[in-house]
Design a protein that fits this description.
Four copies of one chain form a homotetramer. By secondary structure, the first copy, chain A, is an alpha+beta fold. Chain A has helices at residues 10-24, 36-39, 73-85, 104-110, 121-134, 138-150, 159-167, 170-181, 189-200, 206-212, 232-245, 251-257, 294-307, and strands at residues 47-52, 57-61, 67-68, 156-157, 202-204, 262-264, 269-274, 278-283. In chain A, strands 2-1-8-7-6 form a five-stranded antiparallel sheet, sandwiched between helices. The longest helix of chain A is centred in the N-terminal third of the chain and has 15 residues, at 10-24. Chain A is globular, with a radius of gyration of 18 Å. Chain A starts with 9 loop residues before the first helix and ends in a 5-residue tail after the last helix. Chains in contact: A-B, A-D, B-C, C-D. The A-B interface holds A 94-100, 102-103, 106-107, 110-111, 116-117, 235-237, 239-241, 243-245, 249-253, 255-257, 259, 261, 273, 275, 310-312 and B 94-100, 102-103, 106-107, 110-111, 116-117, 235-237, 239-241, 243-245, 249-253, 255-257, 259, 261, 273, 275, 310-312. Chains A, B, C, D: Belongs to the glutaminase family. Chains A, B, C, D: One of its GO terms (biological process) is glutamate biosynthetic process.
Chain lengths: 312, 312, 312, 312
């Protein structure tokens, strides 16, 4: 077949069509600017990838450009901690939606240092703390896990982002010390935060993210390798937490309008799970008022509508 | 076929098996006792019904005994208000999960009188207010809607419960007056509360509830009548709100363990929607610490496990 | 002495000087406008009165113009309830400063319906409730008490203000119903609120207010009559609550800058107690961001500085 | 007069009488036990000292035993920061009472990292931060200030307590990092906390504390030296903050029952200022539920009653 260009699949045609719609929208939103390393990204990049359960990945736009996955990393951290800790994890972090950002610190106070769920920062810091306590080298353990899932040993952390996160991490330090005062951080606060900021600084492409989390759409089994990553039950559980708590204070609206479990990061990435179908990852750096990618939201919403992907 | 007893279906055998398991559990939980009319119910009653999309209803136990549907009525109120108001409704109530009960009143303060979602009391009172404002006789309108959905003109309100709710409704009055002070109650506070307490006092059986809400599992179309009750999109949306916010402060855990949209009431009823499959309603009066029926939770969880009903 | 005009005292010269300074300030602040009846007052009025312990009252400006005393009435209500209830009152309302306005409703929630002190609205509503419960005609009882203290039977309620308060009282109703839900309102909520709004609508002049509260500067004994109104201990206690909680969220700053127990109202009146010296009442309708009279604050601050009146 | 024992003054007789009353009370309260170094103190110690404006100090009981002054040190830190910073200090910390302990962290959130007053921990940490930023060696500067005020170069920090405070300081670290995230900590958080814990660990006797703060009862001038420590205005201001905010969540009650500016510490010390009269310091380690010394409260209350010391 040498010389014959690969014909785009129907799904790629659809992804490209939706990508063009997104790019044609009036520009809105702002790139995350709380750290310089994130603020300097080219804001006009936009990509989408869909990993199907047959192992194929369809893409459009900048789907192979690595971006800072930020809070999308909370899914990887959670999966690894569930594997390592079993149900004991749920003694230290709840699985309830959290209400508004404003309340995060008062809820910690009210609930004696137990975060509402693993996808708010406080909860992800507890998850990081369990990894630090249960692995001799938790950062390596997580990187191995992520690289294995994506089948891409090149995946790495952006050191500039990592250092910048640590320098601007006072609010997360406040959450961690408050939990420490309630006895819900076992390791040194500095070590738990170090792991947390490290995982936030991982860079992956849309293709990487969609492929690596395919097991969540497939009852725990990674389609391209056949490996069981987590139990069927735990795959369902991770999806459930993504559904109720994955999109910051727009989680309810996302369930309402799109109807898929999803997790977002301030790097502009959004991953959505379509049970028994596949995983979508969209990325574009401009964020709406809730911290979710404007174009990412648009593309996933359109794709779910067009293909009737809602779980409801 | 006279003289031939109807043979139980396989599904009824399964429902009965699960019901027996539930009845054999160590007793736990307490009947709601904030009003005398609820406290006097026989606590050992237990029933379950599954309405399938072919119009059949399978039952076990006390599935035909009318009980006080309480907050399950919020689903009916919401559906009617969505029909009547369209998307304007969402200017007055949000669709985000609410965090803890403790915060309900401070969140109203913080968000200027806009409740987090229609399934917390404040949100349901706003929904009641829209019905009062848009219908000349909102209580009749709601009863007609419910009776029509269930195809059962006998469905009625328990007057003792209704009066008792009004007498013990100070906290709901506080929420309503706070919203009024922000301009988010249009009618007289007394009228909005009157409607709200009225709908809480409706009595229905498991069979009634399951049948009446079948359209939510069927993209908005009532299976037994073929009538389109709400749009496909609105059916999905109601399910989404049930998923994130329907089970009080156990909503996240229910999504996590069961994976179905559901709504609970302190009368001991729980309704769960299984998209493209049917509707389950379980009832038993003893409540756990979150206000959800202990045996009801058990039966729905077991049924979902055995039949693999999770949306994830 | 007929025909001989009274010569102004030195104190009146000082009061006039300070009044002129206040009138010469750049205009700032806004008249309370949450009810029309208050918004229509002439905003440029300004008066001050000092009642000394020898029974003399020195005045300047509009010191004889009746104004809506609003929250200044909380001092009268409290004194009457302390007389009637004794120390039992303090089971139902605390005596601690309250922090910010924002928290008033969450603090009620957190402290199970017991208000922080009698000078926040929730606390004054509890005080009103005790009066309603302990007097067959609590409004008459309070009016008799106030008229007797001022030795002025003409003192009356402004009916327009009273009705207007009731119509715009949703937030106060929310507080009252929340306390009712905790069992801390004994009477009907409507009756407690009726008394509360009634006492807020009393009209008195600066001279009236200063004279009527002279007993607080004189260990409980009314100077002009020699009557013991409250015990020395209770006079001290009322002053203490005024010091920590009398000036809304500017109470700390007022103690810091002026050093006198005081109580303010949104009608523009401020009364300050100078132990063993006398009582100052200043009035002018324009309010600062905290709800305290701009010119009133200025005049009392200046007078306290010039005469060295701080209790510290 | 050699050989003639000094006759106790009338005031010493009174102090001893009150001390005996306190010792005869049924034991109540618990020694602070959040750090081992404090928990090991002999709980039955009890002392009182009164420094009069003539320079004399009258004492009873263990008035010369050094104790951990803990939060009483906030008065020294505040006075030094007011001297060094002038009114700029009040841009970074307010002067309003704080409401309940529960709210401390949410109030910081709500008011963007500006603490309510310098006597809650968050406020004292900001004060510590200003000292760290304005002195090359802030801990030495504070020790010099305190030793000079007391005229006692021997005053020192208990190193065990200091290290123990640092090890158990997670909650204070949480407050500090939260303020840092709002830009209201200038130095490194670790340095501000180091200074803060250091000043809490100073040990002084009742006599030391009463003498050293005598300037607050004397319009800013230290009686025994004649030195002006702070302006008259600033002495009044410090007293005012002590009055509204010095006794934790019992500040209002203390103003109500005793009527004196005061500051308490969890080491069991309480200092009360009697303007134009003198300074009282009482100490005994057992604390009531608010963190105030049970016997200390008793002795100061009795003395104020017997001598009529209330400012009201």
């Amino acid at each position: 077949m040498e010389g014959t260009p690969k014909r785009p699949s129907n799904q790629e045609l659809l992804l490209n069509e939706i990508l063009q719609e997104a790019l044609a929208l009036p520009l809105s939103g702002e790139v995350a600017n709380y750290i310089p390393a994130l603020a300097s990204v080219n804001p006009n990049q936009c990509g989408i990838a869909v990993a199907n359960l047959d192992g194929q990945v369809h893409v459009a736009g900048d789907a192979d450009v690595p971006f800072s996955i930020q809070s999308v990393s909370k899914v990887f951290g959670l999966a690894l901690a569930m594997l390592r800790m079993g149900d004991d994890l749920w003694q230290r972090v709840h699985m309830e939606p959290s209400g508004q950002a404003f309340n995060s610190i008062v809820q910690l106070e009210w609930e004696h240092g137990i975060p509402r769920n693993p996808f708010i920062n406080a909860g992800a810091i507890v998850v990081a703390d369990t990894l630090v306590s249960h692995y001799s080298a938790s950062k390596n353990a997580l990187m191995s896990f992520v690289r294995g899932l994506a089948d891409r040993p090149e995946i790495a952390v952006n050191q500039d982002v990592f250092l910048s996160e640590k320098q601007h991490g006072s609010r997360n330090a406040a959450l961690a010390y408050l939990m420490k005062s309630f006895g819900n951080i076992e390791a040194d606060v500095e070590d738990a935060l170090d792991h947390y900021f490290y995982q936030c600084s991982i860079e992956m492409s849309c293709r990487d993210v969609a492929r690596s989390l395919s097991f969540l759409a497939n009852r725990g089994v990674q389609p391209h390798s056949g490996d069981t990553i987590v139990s069927r039950r735990d795959a369902h559980r991770i999806n459930a937490i993504m559904q109720t708590s994955g999109m910051y204070d727009q989680s309810g609206e996302f369930a309402f309008e799109v109807g898929l479990p999803a997790k977002s990061g301030v790097g502009g990435g959004i991953v959505a799970i379509v049970p028994n179908y596949g995983v979508i990852c969209a990325w574009s750096p401009r964020l709406n008022q809730y911290g979710n990618s404007c174009m990412g939201m648009y593309m996933i919403t359109r794709l779910a509508e067009k293909l009737g992907l809602s779980v409801y």
